[in-house]
Amino acid sequence: MESTSTAKPLKLNYKRTMLIGFAFFGILLLWQVYDSWCPTLLSELFKNSFGVTDEKQVQYLVGVMMAIDNLAALILLPIFGRLSDKTRTPIGKRMPYILVGTAVCAIAFPFIPLFYYWNNAAGVISMMLITVVFAMMYRNPAVALMPDVTPKPLRSKANGIINIMGYIGGAFATVLGIFFVLSEFLGTAKNPDGTLKPFTWAHGNVWAIEAPFLIGAVLMVISAVVLFFTVRENELEAKLKEEMERGEEEAEVADRVTEDAPLSKANRNMLLLILGAEFFWFMADNGIATFMVNYTVYLLKTSTASAMVNTIVGGVGSVLGFALGGLIASKIGRKWTLFGGLGLSLLSYVVWIVLTFTVGAEVGKFPIWLYVIWFVKGFGMSLVHVNSYPMVVELCPNSKIGRYTGYYYASSMAAQTITPIALGSLLLIPSLSWAYLPVYGAICLLISAVVFFFVKNVKSVKTKFAKGLEALGQDDE
Question: pLDDT tens digit string along 320-374?
Fold first, then answer.
């Protein structure tokens, strides 16, 4: 094999990476629709079922229901990761799981709003669970595709492109929500005197909430079809063997990773610290995301369309971070890039807290300063996400990428299982209002930053990257 001193500079195949990104496009499209609407749909269902008018009284139940899907993911993601590592078929080891998971999700997902419209809580919950189980069959193998065909030193840049594709899917779902004016159906429309209209099951058109779910399902199928016809797993595995071996030599790890040897003590410590920090940053990020629509509706008393616009603003910040995160990491290393992202996000929460309890917000209006905070937070957390997954799969040989992808998602899903319940339960305390939402996020992020600080900093100086026009030139087929 060619030595690293004389080897041709590593060059990311942008075309192939973007095609793989269609998998993440489908994932985030589905989850953006799911996370944006299911908490509020459940809130209204439970309020109606229990005959209560104060939404805070049912948030612990909403938290439990939003956590059950994450508990299923916590169990299933590592299972599907290991299974796909060991699977061998004519269409590859990941593709069978992607195709089956997509098909079932696409059928079940549009029934969630239909059962809601029929005031059938059991139907809504059943369709949510089916969607989650088969989304997990799809998600781990789809995410593992990128490191399967990308040498380790290039994975942060590739992960940035993958995440940009995903956020395009998420932004598309958000725009759908605004276009179909979901807030009108959920009873947040205003009377002429400025007061909110009460919720009734006859209020609104079912297509106002059905359309985003249905279109999301269709686009998820299209993304899987594009992936299937453009990414040939078995052919790429043979073609990229030499590049993948070189990537193993130039990985940013404490000790060299080999195929059959167990994880070294130093690498194990790195893995545990990364997963521990990841747990707490997902406690913050998912806790806020789960209840942000409710924060908008019940505290700010404004339309959910404002929350959708806020999500888009945060997505713009995220896309910028995804585009720059790999480049920054190639200069200062993944650890300090990620740590800087945590610090920037923590700062945005602190500013949110200060402005909430000093300036405040006018009832019925979404504050402009919250858009700015969401942009900064989006940028900071994108630096975290673009580098964290590559850091985890850096610690394993290529034959175990699915398993380590499972570890990564097990940590995030454990957090996402706990955080809705924890935050929903805290809101039962009479002295705590929706205004304390960013306080919860700031505490979790602070813990995450402290844990991650102790991750060993390993900066590879051996890798030669293609630069300038060479890096942007025609991709090899």
Answer: 998 898 889 888 888 999 999 999 999 999 999 999 888 766 677 788 898 999 9
* 372 CA to centre of own chain: 21
The CATH number of whichever domain residue 191 belongs to comes to 1.20.1250.20
- Answer yes or no: pTM beyond 0.90: no
Q: Assess if residue 5 is contained within a domain.
A: no
Do residues 257 and 396 make contact, with C-beta atoms less than 8 angstroms apart?
yes
| Domain of residue 386, residue span | 14-455
In a domain, 466, yes or no: no
Is residue 209 in some structural domain? yes
**SS3 sequence, 28-56?**
HHHHHHHHHHHHHHHHHHHHHHHCCCCHH
